[in-house]
Amino acid sequence: TEAEIRNVIKQDSISKEEIEKEKQQAAEFAAQQIPNHITLGLGSGTTSAYFVKAIQKRIVNEKLDIQCVATSLGTQKLAESLHMNMLDVNTIDEVDITVDGADSVDDKLNGIKGGGAALLFEKLVAKMSKKNIWIVDSTKYHKTLEGRQMPVEVIPFGGMGVFRYLRDNGYHPAFRFEDNGDILETDSGNYLINITIPKHADLKDLAKNLKNQTGVVEHGLFLNVCDELIIGGDQIKTIKRE
Ligand code: 5RP
């Protein structure tokens, strides 16, 4: 309801420590929901890392038979370091459940992902998944995605052409850089251009438009993907897609 949304949005001013706690709460809650004998997609980012550690504990303690597929090289490395049973994504047809984080989610469970630069693998695994659960802290939940930043992944060759298209159409593009000043390269060796979602944008049209640009590999808009959103907090909130 409106009141519930306002209640969650109100927490926008919480401290870094509280955000971290909420991420962990959401991740641990999600880990408790995972059934045995499944193929599990492991998301990327800091919230997903909490989830990977939490589900790994359950797998060991309860001797669960769960096979996993990672959505980034970083997650693959983390899961391997924890001796989890990892599958090559090309050897499976589908994933039962994927648990992933998100950068922004609206009240219809449309989301923006890619803050950790893993949007391409994340979308691939999400599309193979029968169920997608997102785990977030309360600052990620918004009434609308308007005005929010989202990444567009482009091939390096001709990436400037896409940049010009985005600039000329009012998306305020900016290439994403590493802290050391190098241009950021994704796990696939592509570049990311951050854009701002315009006011009153039709998200479906925007998604289609971006995909239509030659040189665009993928974008961070995830529409009709999230089936269940888990928001951390002392009282966990779960929102299911209608
Ligand atoms: C990575 C992602 C992440 O899920 C998203 O950026 C959230 O990250 P975090 O859990 O660290 O806040 O989409 O590409």
UniProtKB/TrEMBL annotation:
Question: What is the name attached to this protein's record?
Answer: Ribokinase
Report the subcellular localization.
Answer: Cytoplasm
Q: Which organism is it from?
A: Fructilactobacillus lindneri DSM 20690 = JCM 11027
The record's subunit annotation is: Homodimer.
Superkingdom field? Bacteria
State the protein's purpose: Catalyzes the phosphorylation of ribose at O-5 in a reaction requiring ATP and magnesium. The resulting D-ribose-5-phosphate can then be used either for sythesis of nucleotides, histidine, and tryptophan, or as a component of the pentose phosphate pathway.
Sequence similarity: Belongs to the carbohydrate kinase pfkB family.
Query: Shown portion of the whole protein?
Result: 297 to 538 of 543
